[in-house]
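Lecture 7 notes: from sequence to structure.
We start with the chain below.
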Amino acid sequence: MPAKKRHPDELGRALAVARMLRGWQQQDLAEASGVGGPAISDYERAVKLPEMPTLERLAAALGFSVAELLELSALIRRRGPGRSAGTEPAGPGGQPWGRPELARAVAELLSADASEAAQRSRPSEAARLLAADRRLAPTLWARLADRTEEERQALLRKDTVFHNAGLVELLCEESIHAAGDSAQRARHLAELAVEVADRIPGKEAWRERVQGYARRHLANALRVAGDHRAADAEFKRAAALWQAGAVADPGLLNEARVLGLEAALRREAHGLPEAVALFDRALEIDRWGETPALLIGKAKALERMGRFEEAIVLLRQAGARIDAEEEPRKAWVVRELLLLNLCHLGRHREAELMIAEVRALPRQLGNQLDVVRVDWVQGRIDTGLGRYAEAIAVLERVRRKFVDDEIAYDGALVTLELAEIHAILGHREEVKALARESAPIFTQQGVHAEAQRALELFRRAVEDEKLTIELVRAVVVYLYRARHDPRLRFELSLAPA
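Predicted structure tokens for the same chain:
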């Protein structure tokens, strides 16, 4: 249930009590959760309510689920003294309690019928140490961020303060964010996380758990870079470490993220049903605010399975949970994928109504490749609406950009989409020029062997003047489906009916 439907005083009380049972100041919770201290103060005083992703982050930092926080507040409401919004819970005589008094009073309130909840609220030694590591991690990363790879390695070897599990988490998060713009940077950050994880002090099982977490992110960075064989090998190593360290982790590391990364790898390897099942498991256990990313990941899998309507439903759910000001690119990804699925369904007019909004954000962020991808969708919309001259102009521009940047596979797809339009219009010479010009480029840039076979069949059909619109469409459908599965062979039966 969204946090907005909870009574604000009830929720504020839960947060204040859970924080003080930890012995934390509001700033401690801010550093552990990444939520601003002033916002936490507003939430506790019931000035405003947190959105569910924010509440999930706060609860996770405190060692609770959202349901447990609300259970705790309900218990205190039934058994204990009240409080007024804007104050700490009142002690004897109506005076505000300090932290020690509050902790003792809450323990007394819970002792009668909630000893289990009280026990659960006490942080384990591992939780206490990780909370301290998380508070220190941003300072450590600030010391590493602007250094060369060699300087970072030297610091890691020399100074044990960097052997910090919170720093591993932060580097993994940075790797995830970098993946949307630079696969190479995402890999460098994940490799650094692995270097730190290998040096984590303490029990071996905990170190293995942290290593498994870091290596899952390295596998993800390799996947983003298109190196699926290396990603799969790294993932297997990560899975063994993650499982070996399970006994040392009472739920401190983000298992929903781990499952989501595994699902993304399965999706890229064309294990689509398995990917969907993993995304569902991750969504069931998420208490870290991972849900929007998981919904997007599952929607991508459904789109590749041809389940476009279901993908749209999930994307709209994800969009409703994303703060576009805090996560602008994630919000853009949702909208761009919505456009793609609408085009798949032939709902080009509906997509056209959205595209101006989708186009504005990458221009604002300065993400040139994202701008090109919006142009690509525009070309598909123009094609679907029969505006062939406009479509040709847009897709030619997109094709040149992909070829120049050596994004060969997408370049091949756009080339075939252009050829299809020219074939519809009866422009034989234009189709021949596209085929002759593109063949050597795609060979040099490493389009996988099965895709090259399909492109060569297309080229021969053009040269022999045996090309049909059905063949062009079959090759387009094949290239789209085989983008992430180089084992898929081209067959004319792949063409739509």
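Points to note: The mean pLDDT is 81. The chain has three domains: 3-122, 126-253, 396-497.
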